[in-house]
Specification:
Helicase, Ruva Protein, domain 3; globular; 7 strands; 7-stranded mixed beta sheet; homodimer; Rossmann fold; about 50% helix; alpha/beta; about 10% strand
């Protein structure tokens, strides 16, 4: 997905929010916003938003001196999600369609996102998403292709969400490679976070090599690219990965909640909608 | 009021919104946002937001070639407000406290604002504001000082709102000078708009000389400044004028709805609250 002009004010909000995670020094924060203003003029709208996100969070780290502004928040989110784990497993056990319930839970977990300017209540979100109609629902395709596939490439999004991904992986019952970011960016999942969430117990963890808050292929490493190119079944979680991959080749199922109206509009749904959308299938 | 860091993303949203009133040319709009990004680094946070607003709307005019992006919108808002005029007068006629009802209506009219990123329904707003409790309610002071005053300086805000101001001026029953912006900026009221709204029938109209979307004294003309300095009773409508005047001298009553959380926070109320607040009284 290209950068929409409406993404630009949002970049400033994201920078300010990330900056405030580590400092209340107004001068530093102002200089952060000034820097973002300066780099934006050199960024073409053809770039995807996570490419710009990468530059912005790099500025956040340099100006605040903090490499991982969301570290504590991520730890807390993972720990809260782990507390929910037994009840989520129970939810699946009691459901008519275990795989679909696991997909719904994986989408509910996607609400744990600090790149978007919204507060969230994860338990409330779970109750909503378990009952909500999908706006795009390629579930039959998903099941059909899953049945034919030996290996799954599962691209994670946020740290706390990875506990919910683990639950879906447990239902998939096939070998899964779980893809994480190379370094901390916003509250996106890194190898360390995925291990804390217990994903290593159910999948092989692989860094895509990206420093962007989304899967921007040009920024990914050779190992990931090789796997991505040959993969027959890719699950992409969340907005950042959608932004990076929506116009790429590769058989991808996007699982997400459209949390911002710009992305909702790009997908062709409404803000707040939930989506299971397959491309190049 | 100084510029809060949260105003900065909002400046970009305002520029984009104003730019889109006149063009859909993405390149022009991107270059507008780039220019805003460039000027922001030279603007200290000590400046008031309307000082920056002035620079931004100047860029909008220069880049789009349109001097008055909100012209048609303003005409429509004034015309809609004039259609409501008889029923508003009737509302006052049937009220227990005519002056207070007129103040409430003047605040309801303040919702007609394109500087703020919200849609509005003026008739619904009127019904809400007629019943809503004030968060700051210096009404007794207002009445007391009004009784002792020979002349009122009434600083207008938005174009459509000026019809509602006219109704309050009709209830004040004292000589009023109604202050407008020097040139079109956002949908703020100019002399031409005030005349279209019929304010000239009940008050003398005076331009403050400012090109800012708010009363920034440094940008005002000598005639206004002389009147402002000697005035014993000033009514200031809306957020832009509050931002310019909140730390200035002068006996001012602010009549506004706190439409953005930053301003609400500066006043000490909640977003959406209505306020009748006197300073230096």
């Amino acid at each position: 997905m290209r950068t929409y002009l409406d993404c630009i004010p949002c970049f400033f909000n994201q920078a300010l929010r990330a900056g405030r995670m580590v400092t209340r020094d107004e001068k530093k924060l102002k200089s952060l916003l000034d820097e973002v203003g300066t780099i934006l003029r050199d960024i073409p709208v053809e770039n995807t938003p996570p490419e710009t996100g990468m530059l912005i969070y790099d500025k956040v780290s340099k100006i605040t001196g903090e490499y991982d502004p969301y570290k504590k928040v991520k730890e807390k989110n993972i720990s809260q999600a782990l507390d929910l784990y037994p009840s989520l497993k129970n939810e699946i056990k009691n459901s008519d369609d275990r795989l679909l319930t696991a997909i719904r839970l994986a989408i509910a977990g996607n609400v744990i996102d600090f790149g978007v300017n919204k507060k969230f209540d994860i338990e409330e979100e779970i109750n909503v998403v378990l009952k909500k109609d999908f706006s795009i629902f390629d579930y039959d395709k998903f099941k059909h292709h899953l049945g034919k596939t030996d290996e799954i490439l599962y691209i994670g999004d946020n740290a706390g969400e990875s506990v919910f991904d683990r639950i879906l992986i447990e239902e998939i019952k096939k070998p899964v490679t779980y893809v994480v970011r190379e370094i901390p960016v916003i509250n996106d999942v890194t190898r360390e976070d995925a291990i804390q969430a217990g994903v290593d117990k159910v999948a092989r963890i692989l860094s895509s090599g990206t420093r962007a808050p989304g899967t921007v292929l040009e920024t990914c490493n050779a190992e990931f690219m090789q796997l991505y190119r040959k993969s027959k079944f890719i699950i992409s979680k969340g907005q950042g990965n959608y932004e990076g991959l929506s116009e790429e080749k590769g058989p991808v199922f996007f699982l997400l909640k459209a949390k911002c109206w710009v992305i909702a509009n790009d997908i062709g749904v409404s803000e707040g909608d939930i989506v299971l959308k397959g491309i190049n299938i």
